[in-house]
Amino acid sequence: MSKYILQRFIYMMITLFIIVTITFFVMRLLPGTPFSNPEKLSEAQLEIMNAKYGLDKPLAVQYFTYLGNLVQGDLGLSFQSQGRTVINVIASRIGPSALIGGQAMIIGFIIGLVLGVISALKHNTIYDYGSVFIAVLGMSIPSFVFAALIQYFIGVKLGWLPVALWEGYSYSIMPSIALSVLVIATVARFIRSEMLEVLGQDYVLTARAKGISEEVVIIRHVLRNALIPVVTVVGPLSVSIMTGTLVIEKIFAVPGLGEQFTLSILVNDYSVIMGITLFFSALFIFVIFLVDVLYVILDPRIKLKREG
Amino acid sequence: MSDNILSVKDLEVSFQTHKGSLKAVRGVSFSLKKGETLAIIGESGSGKSVTAKSIMKLLPKKTTMINQGSIMYKDKDLLAYTYKEIEKIRGREISMVFQDPMTALNPTMKIGKQVMEGLRKHQQLSKKEARRRAMELLELVGIPNAEKRLDGFPHEFSGGMRQRVVIAIALACNPEILIADEPTTALDVTIQAQILELMKDIQKESGTSIILITHDLGVVANMADRVAVMYAGEVMETGTAHEIFYNPKHPYTWGLLQSMPKIHQAEDQRLIPIAGSPPDVNLIHDGCPFAARCPYVMKVCHHHNPAQTKESETHSVACWLQDKKAPKVKQPAGIKSDGS
Q1: What is the pTM of this model?
Q2: Which residues contact A100 (CB under 8 A, 6 or more apart)?
Q3: Which residue is closest to A210 within chain B, CA to CA?
Q4: What b/e string do you get for B246-281 counting C-beta neighbours within 10 Å, with b at 16 or more?
């Protein structure tokens, strides 16, 4: 087990290294530099700025300098926000993203679970068609459409919740709902198909033949086995939702990480772009690793083995 | 006949399919006495499993229709039971062993827990008592190191061992009837013999009645007291094992016996298959379902379904050849005769 974890850790480091390298060079293909603003900066000022941030050195040197700092846990300073470290920028932005993302995951998972289970148990009935319809709708309607709709109805017409901005807990509810639609759809579809598969298994018949009640059969034998593969979907999904989504944060004016990320790309804030990319990738890779370990606990058939 | 523990009368089961309703069981009757083994034999699709599953209401609720008939268990009609009521019968009074032990156990649940489930429900045993009883059961079905194996998972067991576990689950609450749906089909031959031997031993000890569903005549000869031969959802012939093997009356039974290799068979004697394939049950309207494949078919066979004719107290046949007006047909060669 510990050997397996060590091996996985090395692989994770290699993956991160590749991501850092590709992002670093691709980012430089973006037009302009952080200081390409000829109207406001004179030649001399520009040279000073470039020298201060090391942009005057050859690209390869900059790359190795960045790697060197990274190994020491230094993500550098933001190019645009005076005197703030990248870590500081990320830390100040992750809160709102994680809050609406986390709430969206909880709402989405519960509703998705209920829809999926009803769908599977009432297979080929009006209930099934109904929840499949909701799931397909959730998948296919772009989130900004749904976001605008609830802003209009809940925010403007009914006036129950604030339409946008970030000035208290109530401001987090509508973005969470808007974000949960995708989670509902994904979870419902996945649970439905997993449950249908398990319901057709012989061991469900064995369980029924024992005389235990149908509810126990469903919860203990069907749902438990159907939920195991759901972990593989929910893990990565929660990372991508909790680390900030561009569209929802823009529409609801949430000061989250997603919004910061787009802003940084627009102004070529190299170190912040690198930092957020790295943060997201590292979290993602770690959660995938976590899912693999969780699988061993949930499914006794799977044993972790070191690849030979 | 009051010594019947189970008697199925005129059972008719159909399924809703896209093409309309499909009659899988078409008027099946048989009975089971206490402590005996009844074998139901027939080809795939002859309705054996459907008949067995309908006894325990294990067929899919939404698509299954029991059109008529009765299943009397100890003077109560199981067909009148609700799904909630049948739960008290399942596993406690009537148990079932399924065909494929590789898929019949929950892969993520410990063996012990799977054995204990029924015990906890029907006998309200405490966890500790149920565990002790589960261990006894595993020992009873011949699983070595039972105490340790309780905490094992199905994938750690071989096929034969898994089938032993499935049997242990079925026997957990000392059921009156054990329905074994092709219990050895998925196992290799040496393991088959062990499992059959185990079932026989258990029957001797506990007096359980067994309904054995199979298409393996060797298994039937080894196990059964009485035999019901099914074809296209109907019972063609019933009798004691002796009557079916040594004095079969139905051409379909003849066909089955002729297609089975025998140990003393002369080298040049070939196995004789039954020509054709089983009919689409939707296409049978009137007449005997075997008519299309029967070498002795007569005009009447196509239009009227023969009634059961009693050959003896225990032996009955559904075939027009038994009619007084029918020509006398000699039992084909290759079937061992009684010598009588």
Answers
A1: 0.81
A2: A172, A175, A176, A179, A248, A254, A256
A3: B91
A4: bbbbbbbbbbbbbebeeeeeeeeeeebebeeebbeb
**Whole-number pLDDT of residue B38:** 93
Q: How far is B263 from chain A (nearest CA, A)?
A: 36
Q: Taking 90 as the threshold, does the pLDDT of residue A110 lie above it?
A: yes
What is the per-residue pLDDT across A252-286, written as a single tens digit (0 to 9) for each? 888 888 888 888 888 888 888 888 888 889 888 99
pLDDT value at residue A308: 41
Backbone dihedral region for residue B187 (phi beyond 0: left; psi -120 to 50: alpha; all else: beta): beta
ipTM computed for the complex: 0.85
Give the model confidence (pLDDT) of B36-74 as tens digits: 999 999 888 888 889 999 998 888 888 888 888 899 988
CB pair distance less than 8 Å for A206 and B100: no
Across the interface, whether the CB atoms of B56 and A209 are under 8 A apart is answered yes
Q: What distance lies between CA A205 and its chain's CA centroid?
A: 39
Nearest chain A residue (CA) to B86: A211
User: How far away is chain B from the Cα of A122, in angstroms, using its nearest Cα?
Assistant: 10
Q: Is B159 on the interface with A (CB under 8 A)?
A: no
Residues 6 or more apart from B187 whose CB is under 8 A from it? B101, B159, B160, B163, B195
Task: Please compute the mean of the pLDDT values over residues A209-226 and round it to a whole number.
Answer: 90
Strand order in the sheet with B37-41: B94-97, B177-181, B209-214, B37-41, B226-231, B234-240, B316-318, B308-310
pLDDT at residue B1, rounded to an integer? 45
Type of residue found at B303? H
Cβ within 8 Å, pair A228-B108:
yes
Check CB contact under 8 Å for B106 and A221. Answer: yes
Q: Which positions ≥6 away from B9 have C-beta within 8 Å?
A: B29, B69, B70, B71, B72
- Cβ-Cβ contacts under 8 Å between A and B: the total is 79
